[in-house]
Specification:
The protein has 201 residues and is of the alpha/beta class. It has six helices and six strands. Helix 2 crosses helix 3 and helix 5 packs across helix 6. It starts with a strand and ends in a 6-residue tail after the last strand.
């Protein structure tokens, strides 16, 4: 068994202005950097030092910098970068605000966005990425079972959560906050959601 925690990157200016980022590479702002420092402190407080910790991230700079800040606080190498963990590409919707999105495309659940990565493709990519991360971490720390922290993105984390909970979480309309943590137990090929702010909604 392996514990896997998915962390949403810290805030960017586009997050603050409620613009859709997708695959557009937007850097952290100062609030995002402080959120990353908070994540690092929380992990340092709760992590068992006897258990190896592997830190990975998406290749987009907002996730990578979040992970770099966390690694500095924990005093560990990293992050290992996995492009499969990057955010869903939102096609022509990237850069628009949430209000503009609703005006152009309707509700989030039914929106048809030209050029956007289909959700089933996002889910498959995310799960393949998770399998690779877990395989690499287990191989590098054999025969032990390391704890894995992966810094990724709201849409990708949402897709993994919905897969793990058979579509029950997060419910429509629930936003995964910047800097939020979502912990899973990995048993062979099965993901079980253990802890997430979305479960309290």
């Amino acid at each position: 068994m392996t514990t896997l925690t998915l962390v949403r990157h810290g805030e960017t200016d586009w997050n603050r202005n409620r613009r859709i980022q997708g695959s557009t590479d937007i850097p952290l702002n100062e609030t995002g950097r402080e959120q990353a420092r908070r994540i690092g402190r929380e992990l340092a407080e709760h992590h068992d030092p006897a258990v190896p910790l592997v830190l990975v991230s998406s290749d987009l700079s907002r996730a990578r910098e979040t992970a770099e800040i966390v690694a500095g606080i924990l005093g560990i190498p990293g992050p290992l970068v996995y492009p499969a963990l990057r955010e869903r590409a939102y096609g022509e919707a990237e850069g628009v605000t949430d209000v503009e999105f609703l005006e152009r495309y309707g509700t989030w659940a039914t929106a048809q966005i030209p050029g956007a990565e289909p959700w089933p493709v996002v889910t498959a990519r995310a799960l393949d990425g998770m399998r690779q991360v877990i395989s690499d971490a287990r191989r590098s720390h054999a025969p032990g079972s390391p704890e894995i922290v992966a810094v990724a993105h709201g849409g990708l984390i949402r897709a993994v959560m919905r897969h793990a909970t058979a579509g029950q979480h997060p419910v429509d309309g629930v936003r995964l906050a910047n800097g939020s943590r979502h912990t899973f137990l990995v048993e062979r090929e099965r993901l079980r959601l253990l802890e997430s702010p979305a479960l309290a909604v």
